[in-house]
Amino acid sequence: MLKFVSKNALILGAAAAVCVLLVASVNQLTAPTIAQQAELQKLKLLQEVLPPGAASAELLQDCLVLQQPDVLFQHKAKTYRWRQQGELAAYVIETTAPDGYSGNIQLLAAITPDGTVLGVRTLSHKETPGLGDKIEMRKANWMDSFRQRQVQSADDKRFGVKKDGGEFDQFTGATITPRAVVAAVKRTALYLKQHPELAEAPANCQPQ
């Protein structure tokens, strides 16, 4: 009986080893393709907030990880630097609106060094369907209202919803969501505008 069990254990062990080798081989063969697809998806997302043709593989390498939880409300926020002829043209930065109606709203924004917003997209949220979800481009084009608006200072009242005296439309029955997004974009633009040293800081993201 013991001999029979030992034989079966050896067979199972050999089969497991073969399976591990097969899985490792498949992972090794598919890893480059997976990495390439991930890079293409990231470039596609970056292109949504930048001018046509701006997103490139070089953009992914010129990246900073910012640790500014009091501003960006993320422990480590990735920031890509878009350059034209060697000069910084815009940051593409991950930021968070922590005060959405149903919690955090994760955003991606392209902002020039002088605080002009080129584009904003929602990465994830838990806002109420039919009300706060107008921050999704597939539901509405409200996010496009940020384009070419410049944050001039912390006292810039234009960067607010109309209910608060600003220039951004609020949603019918849902003011909290747009108010949170506008505030997050304003706060992020001010931070970038006030820290010009970020333009030449050494890239510190993990290699793609």
How many strands, which pairing sense, and closed or not: the largest β-sheet? 6 strands, antiparallel
Give me the strand/helix succession. Answer: HHEEEEEEH
- Structural class, from secondary structure content? alpha+beta
Gap between N and C termini, in Å? 54 Å
pLDDT < 50 stretches? none
Number of strands: 6
Compute the gyration radius: what is it?
23 Å
Tally of individual domains: 1
Label the overall shape: globular
What's the helix count?
A: 3
Instruction: Report the average pLDDT across residues.
Output: 86
Signal peptide: 1-31
Enzyme class: translocase
Modified residues (FMN phosphoryl threonine): 175
Main location: membrane
Structure description:
There is one protein chain. The protein has one domain. Strands 1-2-3-4-5-6 form a six-stranded antiparallel beta sheet. It has 208 residues and is α+β, with helices and mostly antiparallel strands. A hairpin with a 4-residue loop joins strand 4 and strand 5. It is globular, with a radius of gyration of 23 Å. The model has no long low-confidence stretch (mean pLDDT 86).
Annotate the secondary structure layout.
Layout: H1 2-49, H2 57-61, E1 63-66, E2 77-84, E3 87-100, E4 103-111, E5 116-124, E6 149-150, H3 176-193
Antiparallel strand pairs: 1-2, 2-3, 3-4, 4-5, 5-6
Question: How would you summarize what this structure contains?
Answer:
With 208 residues, this protein is α+β, with helices and mostly antiparallel strands.
Task: Provide the descriptors you would attach to this structure in a database record.
208 residues, alpha+beta, 6-stranded antiparallel sheet, 3 helices, 6 strands, 34% helix, Ion-translocating oxidoreductase complex subunit G, FMN binding, cell membrane
